[in-house]
Amino acid sequence: MDSVIGESEVQQYANPVLESAYFISKNSKDVFIPQDSIQEAANTIYSNMKKLKYSISVWKQHELHPKVANEDAINWIFLVDLLNFSFWSDLEKEKGSNIQERFSIYHKDKIYTGYWSLCAAINRAIDEGIQITNPSVYASSENLSDDKIKYIFRSHTSEGIPLLQERINCMREAGKILVEKFDGSFINCIKQSNNSAMKLLKIITDNFECFRDECEFLGRKVQLYKRAQILIADIWACFEGHNYGSFNDIDDITMFADYRVPQALFHLGALSYSQNLHNILNSFTLLPNGSQLEIEIRGCSIWSVELIKRLIQQKIKQDNTLDLIPNSNAIILDFYIWDFANENKLNFKVDIHRTRSIFY
Ligand SMILES: Nc1nc2c(c(CN[C@H]3C=C[C@H](O)[C@@H]3O)cn2[C@@H]2O[C@H](COP(=O)(O)O)[C@@H](O)[C@H]2O)c(=O)[nH]1
Predict the structure, then answer these.
(1) What's phi and psi for 106, nearest 5 deg?
(2) Higher pLDDT residue, 342 or 12?
(3) Which reactions is this enzyme annotated as catalysing (predicted)?
(4) Which terminal CB of the chain, N or C, has fewer other CB atoms within 10 Å?
């Protein structure tokens, strides 16, 4: 068996996710970070972000995101990122097939799919007077029955929301933990973190099993923590780095290893796949959660964005124009790439990887 690279060179990163991503990228067999095109990818991303003046303030501009940074927003963000996973459709067996029948939410005269369908369903429930974001409500079926949750996520089409029962289980588990251990509010987790994103990451993954996005890769535990990290990032972005969003080590948060950003990284030339993996993705073959191919895609995506971040930070140092992007940490880069992917995904040459998982 090939020697496992990086085992001895234990990287001293503050974030265990970055350490895992480094290890995965050094031992990946079907996913690569092309050294010859990642600089061009960084240039493209940097110039587009400058043109858009892309910054932390974009987060609240999204129509379905909270507009006021307060306790209600924290409860909303916690619930959204508790359920922020697996929106891709089983109906799509080949490119573009049946997409009109995929799960979607009708809200205020608009139809939403993907991540936005989750936000729309929650906002619709709030408009209907359901206290859906209150942890003591979704913690127990006495306060909010399974049938009521099913009603909240009722689809505009024949396909229902993927993993509905798993989503209900997450709500019960996390709601109970917030009520029993954190006096009913995620704000108390934030207070315990003493303005450290890394401490908050540990509080989340130690206490909430459904955020514990870990698996084994070449005999070693790797931590990817996609929803735990985006939960912290969304609070930081909503509060624009102030108040409950003030973390002195926020730049240690990595890219969020989902299924959409890797697709964009491939399109931009910041990720490449073996022919075998290329064929698997374009034939819509399922990849089991925890499989080597899935972990290579997720881990290399995190490392690719880390390298892009370093390249862009070098460019900022040499850039003497005035229209610099105000912030270029992995969160802002990730948010930009995800928004770019959602606007261009129908033109991408390679499809997403299809893994059913509660982790992303
Ligand atoms: N890496 C990363 N993954 C993200 C997001 C978001 C939403 N973030 C919003 C908030 C601020 C930003 O500006 C975005 O507007 C969702 N996801 C993941 O994508 C998948 C859904 O994709 P689709 O089926 O196409 O909607 C699913 O795994 C979901 O967990 C992100 O930002 N980064």
Answers:
(1) -100, 120
(2) 342
(3) queuosine 5'-phosphate + H2O = queuine + D-ribose 5-phosphate
(4) N
**pLDDT per residue over 227-278, tens digit each?**
999 999 999 999 999 999 999 999 999 999 999 999 999 999 999 999 999 9
Q: How far apart are CA 207 and CA 43, in angstroms?
A: 40
- Judge residue 206's burial from the number of C-beta atoms within 10 Å of its C-beta, 0-12 exposed, 13-18 middle, 19 or more buried: exposed
Q: How far is the CA of 32 from the centre of ligand 1 (A)?
A: 23
Ligand 1 centroid – CA 129 distance (Å): 27
Domains in the chain: boundaries? 7-344
Q: What is the DSSP string of 257-279?
A: --SSHHHHHHHHTS-EE-HHHHH
Record the pTM. Answer: 0.96
Verify whether ligand 1 is closer than 6 Å to residue 231 (CB atom): no
334 annotated active-site = no
- Ligand 1 neighbourhood includes 20 CB (under 6 angstroms): no
Q: How close is the Cα of 115 to the center of ligand 1, in Å?
A: 6
Nearest ligand 1 atom to alpha carbon 341: 25
Contact 76, 125 (CB under 8 A): no
ipTM above 0.90, yes or no: yes
pLDDT in tens, 205-222: 999 999 999 999 999 999
54 lines ligand 1 (CB under 6 A): no
Q: Is the pLDDT of residue 175 over 90?
A: yes
**208, 210, 212, 214 alpha-carbon torsion, rounded to 10°:** 160
Smallest Cα–Cα separation from 114: which of 131, 137, 92, 93? 92
47-56 tens-digit pLDDT: 999 999 999 9
